[in-house]
Structure formats: C-alpha cells, structure tokens
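hey all, quick one before standup. I had two proteins in the batch that finished overnight and I want to keep them in one place so we stop losing track of which output belongs to which input. First protein below, input sequence then structure tokens straight from the run.
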Amino acid sequence: MNSAVEVVAFILGFIAWIMLGVCIPYGYWKVSTVDGSVITTSTIYENLWMTCASDSTGIHNCREFPSLLALSGYLQASRALMITALVAGTLGNVAAMVGLKCTKVGGDNYVFKGRVAGVGGVCYLLEGLCAMVAISWYAFNITREFFDPLYPGTKYEIGPALYIGWCAGTMALIGGSCLCCSCSQGTADKQPPYFRAPMSAAQASRTVKSTSEAGGTNYGRNAYVPLTSPAPPALRSVTELSSSSDRSPAGMAQPDPITP
C-alpha cells in the first residue's frame, strides 16, 4: 500500500480518538427543548455522567447521577461502549504507529509491519463501531421521547456532543478500513532483494559429481575446446616439407653436399 494512504489513515484515526476524548466528558449530549415554551428561565442539559441546569443569569448547577444501577439500561451501555471505543482507539494508535512503513519503529520487516498495521485497523474499526452504536442508541432514545405525546417528563433535543461523536466514529471507520487493506497487501516489492550465498568448493564438487553420475553435464555442446590446436601455417609448411622429403623414392638421386 502507498505510504501516503497509511499516513492519512493514521491521522484520521488519531483525530477520531481525540474527538472521542472530547465527546465523552462534554456536557451537552442532550439539551432541553424550548418547543412550545414562551418564556424560558432555565436550560437543562445532560451527558453520560451528570445532569446540569443553567438559569438566565448564567449560573450552572451540575449534579452527578447518584446511582449507577438506577440508570437506564441504554445509558449504562452507552458508557461501556464509549469507554471501549476510547481504549480501542488508544491501542489502534500504538499499533498503527508501529505498522507505518514510513517509520523505523519495528525494523524493516514489512510483512510484520503490515500485520501490525492490520491490527491497528481492526482497533480503529472497533472504536468506530462502538462509538456509532453508543451515540446512535442515545440519540434514538432522545427522539423517541421527543415525539411521544404521552411522555410526561422533560423532552430533550440532540446536543452538539452527539454530532462530534458521529464525526469521530465515521473518521475511525474510514481510517480503520484503509489500515486493514495493508494487512493483505503483497509486500514482495518492498522486500530487499534475495541474496544467494556463493557455493563452497565442497558443495561445487558434490554438485559436479552428482551431475556426472546422473549422466548430465553443466556445459553445452559448443563449450568444449579441443586439447590440441592446429599448428600455425609456417610450422605446418616446414613439417610438410620434412615429411615429403622422408617419403621421397629411394632411387632418386640426392643432391651433392656443398663443400666450402
């Protein structure tokens, strides 16, 4: 995979993790509606941990939920899912940082780095899924109570924290999908070239012996060189003259030796 895509995926996952960290303690998960009210003297808003009220003078009074077991089931589940998303995002950041090919963390083993990046992508996907489920479930209960004409309590509207959470979940899902693709990416082109050690003399002799025993050869037909090469033309002429003189008839008169 292209290193730029991995970097973009890591940036998306890291920003999503920061946005979830802002979203969880943010107070405005739901805000009391002013629909049907002419005069509004106070505004009530809640999150996963407390409920607050502000009056027209700007004074805010907050109170934590007194009992965990007394809370609604969806509120307890939303707490657990958001904490799980934050932990998964933390693990995803560590794994993605190790798995990036543009970093030296983890060495130059690109197969290992690709697998670690895939693990980081799975963590980002888990983060996005947990955040989307928790926030969508919370928003569903808000809208159900708002449109229920028989609901006797205070009606609320969706607060800005839910929009932050939706954006964070979407970014985490996109970043996790990109990193998961690097897990199945072939890394043959990223590997260093294969080096073959030179063959020792003993190995070479064993190879030649096994080849000769098998009746094969390591050389082509045109690779053989004759052991004796033909004599040069000058030497060949002298040799021919001497051989012709030796083959002369016995009755032929020999020239007289030249005396000084």
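OK second protein, same deal, sequence then tokens:
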Amino acid sequence: LLLRPLYSGTTELPPYYQPWMDIAQHVTELIYSHTLRSHILKMPLLNTQFLESHRELRLAHLALSVMTMGYVWQEGENDTVKMLPCNLAIPYWKVSQHLGLPPILTHADAVLANWKKRDPHGPFDMENLELLVTLPGGDSVRGFFMVTLLVELAAVPAIKSIPLVINGVQCGDAETVTRALEEISQAMEGMTDALKLMHAYVKPEVFYGIIRIYLSGWKDNSSMPAGLVYEGIQAEPMEYSGGSAAQSSLLHCFDELLGVKHEENCGAFLTRMRNYMPSSHKRLIQDISLQPSLRGFVQQEASELLTEAFQLCVTKLTALRSYHINVVSRFITVPAARARQLRSQGNSSQEETVSRAPTALEETGTGGSGIMSFLKTVRDRTRDISMPLDNRAMQKSTNGARPQNTQYTTHQKHLQSNTL
C-alpha cells in the first residue's frame, strides 16, 4: 500500500536503541537549548544488527535523519559542521544501505514514515494525525508534513488505477482505460484539494524562516559547499540533496504513464531525485516507463471518450502543478522578498521570523533546484502533451467503429504486485 503505518501498537525501537530515541524525540528542545550536538557526541555507537524488520529499519532511519539534520543545522547556516560523528554516521550509513535510501532526511522519512493516528480507529485526517518525531516549527512543521501526507493519501486511487490503464492498453480495451483514467483525474483533483490545506495549517513566515533550513541538504548549498564527511565511512565529504516534493514517487508515476517529457536539466534533476525514494517506488516508476505508450494508444484508438479522459488527466496534473507554484510563491518567494527587504534596510531583527532564514536558499528549493523556473518548466512540459479532440475522434465516436488494434497485444507482465 502507498501509506501504511510503520508500527503496530508501538512507536519504539527495541530497548537497545533507546539512546537514539531519547534524542530523536527531543530534537527540537535540544536545538533550542543549543545542546543537541553535545548530546549526540555523548551517544554510544550502536550496532544495527538488532533492527530485524523493515519497519524497524524505517523508524531507525527516521530517527537518525532528524538527529542528523538537527546536528548539522543547530546553529544555522553560519555555523555548520564539516563532519558527522561516527557514533551517528556509521549506523546511519548502515541503515541507509539496508533500505536503499541516502543518509539524509528524505520525503520517505519526514512524510511517509513519520505519522500515527491518535485514535487508531479514527479517521485519517488532520485532527487525528500526529508526527512521530519533529523539528523546529511548532504547529506549522506538523501541518507541513501532515498536509503533504494527505496529498499522498488522495493519490492512492490513482496509483491503484495505473495497472488497470496499462493492462487495458496491452489488451486493447479502450473502455477499461477510459474508466481508469477518469479515476486518476479525479484523484489528481483530490490531491490539489488536499494541498490547499497548506494555507490553513502552515504559516509562511514560519516555514521560510524556521522550518526550511532543517530540510536542507549539503549538495548545491553554498552554506556547505564541500558537503559533509560521514566519519568512519570515508574521509572525503559526500553531498546529498535536501528534502523535495520531487522525491515523492506520485508525479513521477503520472509523468511516465502519460508520457510527459521534461526539459534536459529538469529531467536530470527529477531522475536524480529517484535515488532518494524507497527501492519499491523506484521499481514501480521504472516498470511504468517500460510499458507501451498510453498516449500512442489514445491516438490510435481515436475515441472521443478515451481522448477526453486522457486530456482531463493532463488538465488536472497541470492544475496540480500550477497550484504547487502558487503554494511555493506564498511560502518561499514572497517571504524571500521580505527577507531581502529587511536586509537592505539593515534590519536583521529577530522580531520578524523571515529574517532568520538562510540566505543560501533564497533562490532554490531545499533539494537544490532553482525553484520557480524549475516548477514552471515542468508544468509547461506537462501541458505540452495535451491532446485536443480531432475530427477523426469525433467521427469515430459517432459511428462507433473501432479498428483492429495491432500495436498493443496482450502482455502478461503487470504492475499489481509492485505496490508502494
């Protein structure tokens, strides 16, 4: 399943790992008291061999990730560190290798693995969800991660419908493909509706001025131009990107299904972000990319209903990306302009939260992309695959004719088993 709670009745690791959890569950307080680094330096070097299940490994990765982000950014961008101590770096590296994830906080950690229901039998909504571990930002950091989680939840019907589309294309079943595409477009609209909750649960000045630095990485970041040494792993520093919406597998799946072709630089960044996803997510995206072209099937069938269903998916995905641009403008672009204005006036007062924001990230996302130009280019390339109805489709839908499908034959391989 796309979203599955990691833990059944517990949010703890085996008792041996309590030194990790004692710190991970108090990262925010330790950052504010400027004592997180000293606590981590005193932490014992623990062996990862007692982490027996996938869920324990994911919780361990989450705990080690928030400790790492706090350790690096405790004093802001002007007092970063060059080395992650071995008692944190070695187990973090080993857990990351087990999971196929990088040793940095990812979308898969902060969002997909960082929630539980307050009432296990209650609804999956904002009021009944809470974080397992948190970072500075108070209610806004909870809101940011939980709203993002609800966007993922809204996408579940679409992800479940993708194998139906692929099998329908392989079998030449236009009716099945049409119904599945309608389900996908409806889910995309639900994702946009969920994203709108960001305005209600996250304060832009808190996101920009406090939260954002703790999601930042040490690649393409002028605050840490050399990267970070993971002590006990290798002597040379390593570079990893911070958290990014591009690390969610959802839009990658939609792009591969619909046939969105991204501009070279944008495409290279998106492809690199797949290295920050769980292995099963990467495999699913790859499997979708290897299937016969949906867009080619729609063109060949020339069915009005099928073309409309495909076009509606393109429209809804474009709308989702446009709304994301709106969110980024409110939560990054506008606060960044305010921060620059304060600096130009010689006002670095802590009274305005945005003035605490790192200057290194003003023009980029936490993942390292030039954020607005990137998002607009990706949105425009999505719009480029639009397929307006033509006369052939109108005529064919009217007379009911259906030519024999020779290009798309039944294919035994399907994606049902490759769940998120």
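Flagging for whoever picks this up: The first helix runs from residue 18 to 24. The chain has one domain: 18-385.
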